[in-house]
Structures are given as structure tokens and as C-alpha cells.
Design brief:
Blueprint (H helix, E strand, L loop, with lengths): L1 E5 L4 H11 L4 E6 L5 H6 L3 E4 L7 H4 L4 E4 L8 H19 L3 E5 L15 H15 L4 E7 L2 E2 L6 E5 L9 E2 H11 L8 E7 L2 E2 H6 L5
Parallel strand pairs: 1-2, 1-4, 2-3, 4-5, 5-6, 6-10, 7-9
Antiparallel strand pairs: 8-10, 8-11
Helix pairs in contact: 1-6, 4-5
Length: about 210
């Protein structure tokens, strides 16, 4: 399996690229800036330079799956977090790619209930998520709580109604969860929230079938 990581130079994306690079999968790391390419190579990925707001056909070519971990950091939520994601979904469908994993955010199901500073971001993520769900792709949407840079524990909680006040999670655990969903049928066409918890990632994802 060759996996394209959109946003491979971001904080979560770097973890995803490294984890895939250490596995038996081929990983292609998409970056917007040529100067970031050596960092992707050091993480074990094959760098490809592409802009989410432009043509990404060359980036998705010959890939089997996409993990979308890109984001604007609040600088262009409509152009990158929404339209960039939509552009990647369209490119995946045109290329015949079937598997798409989206990094979203806790609160994207009800943006109006989020903190004032995040409402526009959550609206953008919500629209991107909905577009992906309406596509023909086998998709998974992962909505983690507030992200930290603490070392990952490999233990999480998943669900559809996680308390946002206790949902902090290390970026490394988010990355491991994104990668773990790729072959896991219990996550196919599923949207779920994610936080730090007591269950090993594979066990937690397996329980999605029971919900």
C-alpha cells in the first residue's frame, strides 16, 4: 500500500509520516514548500511538492490511500481546511483511490457550540467532513480533542460523545490512530471522536462495530 500524507510537515503529519515510514507501507509526504522535502525524507517518506489549493493530480498518482492531516493553522480555514480537503477528495476519486482518512476536530458536528475563536474553523471542517462522507470513497473521519506534544501512550478512547474538557490527546497518539484505521474495517465509513484513554488503539477501534 502506498499512502499519501497531505500535510506531512505539520505536527501530526510528521508523526504519521514517520510511523508509516517505519512500517511495510510506502509513504509519500506532500509538502507545499520544496525546502521541507529533506525533512520528509528524514522521516522515511518520499516527498512530493503540491499545493492543496491548486492541482494535486501528480501527488495522488499511483497512491492507494490518503491520510489528510493538513491544516492552515487558522490562517485560511476556508481555503485550506475546507476547500483544500475538498480538492483532495476530488483528486482521489478522479485517480481511482478508494481509501481516505480525514483528520478533523472534536466539535465539528456542532460548530456553533465551540469557542468563539474556533467557530469558523469548525464550520470549515464540518463542511469538508460532509463532502467526504457524500463521496464514493471508503472514508474515516477522526475528530480528536485538544492536541498536546506529550509522548504518546498508545491508549485512547473513541466514541461519539466524548467530554471535550477531558479529551486532550498527544499528537503522536492521533497519528497512530489515523494509521491504524487504514486497514481496519470497523472504521470504514465511520466518524468518531478521539481522546486519551485506557484502551490500546486497535482494541478501541475494534469496538466501533459494537456502537
Amino acid at each position: 500500500m502506498r499512502v499519501l500524507v497531505a500535510g506531512s510537515h505539520g505536527q501530526v503529519g510528521q508523526h504519521v509520516t514517520r510511523i508509516l515510514g517505519e512500517s511495510d507501507r510506502d509513504v509519500r509526504g506532500m509538502v507545499r514548500d520544496e525546502e521541507q522535502a529533506p525533512d520528509v525524507e528524514a522521516l522515511g517518506g518520499e516527498p512530493v511538492v503540491a499545493d492543496l489549493t491548486a492541482d494535486v493530480t501528480h501527488a495522488v498518482r499511483e497512491c492507494d490511500a490518503i491520510i489528510f492531516a493538513a491544516g492552515s493553522g487558522g490562517e485560511d480555514v476556508w481555503g485550506v481546511d475546507r476547500d483544500g480537503a475538498i480538492n483532495m477528495v476530488d483528486a482521489a476519486e478522479a485517480a481511482g483511490i478508494k481509501r481516505f482518512v480525514m483528520l478533523s476536530s472534536l466539535g465539528a458536528d456542532h460548530p456553533e457550540n465551540g469557542p468563539e475563536a474556533l467557530i469558523e474553523y469548525l464550520r470549515a471542517k464540518a463542511e469538508a467532513d460532509e463532502y467526504l462522507r457524500d463521496s464514493d470513497l471508503t472514508q474515516t473521519i477522526v475528530r480528536p480533542g485538544p492536541l498536546t506534544n506529550e509522548p504518546g501512550t498508545g491508549r485512547v478512547v473513541v466514541g461519539t460523545d466524548i467530554d471535550p474538557d477531558s479529551a486532550e490527546i498527544p499528537r503522536e497518539d492521533v497519528a497512530r490512530t489515523l494509521v491504524a484505521t487504514l486497514p481496519k474495517e470497523s472504521t470504514y465509513d465511520a466518524t468518531f471522536e478521539l481522546g486519551s484513554g485506557d484502551d490500546p488503539i486497535d482494541d478501541a477501534l475494534g469496538r466501533l462495530l459494537d456502537e
